[in-house]
Amino acid sequence: MAQTAGAVLAGKQMLHDLVGVIAAWLASLLGGDRVVQSFARQLASNIPLPSDAKMVATARGLQVAGVLLCLFNGDDIRRCQCFIDLALEETKAQVKKILVAAMEDWAALARFPASPLVAERGMYGSAGRP
Hints:
By secondary structure, the chain is mainly α. It is built from five helices and no strands. Helix 1 packs antiparallel against helix 2, helix 1 (2-29) packs antiparallel against helix 3 (52-72) and helix 3 crosses helix 4. It is flat, with a radius of gyration of 21 Å.
């Protein structure tokens, strides 16, 4: 299931890349130089497509189903590729939110409290060292 979910997400990216290539080609037909073509490619490939939400929902649904299968089979969740992929993606999304908050307003970082273990020990990122 993890491979299928990954393929769905890769297909989403390929679709975006294709839209970018078409936009660059159209820009060249209209006389745009390499800079204009590159800009058109980047712009078009980053615009959300109508199918994006459905493709992401499909991939996430497959990952959740894969996690449930791992649990039902009694597999170690830490070795379940669907769980690993889902956890990594959610972690990246959370870290991105923290970084955006930091860039906008350092005080907004208070919306992301430390975990109880970090708060108890009073340290961040020190791998248990004082």
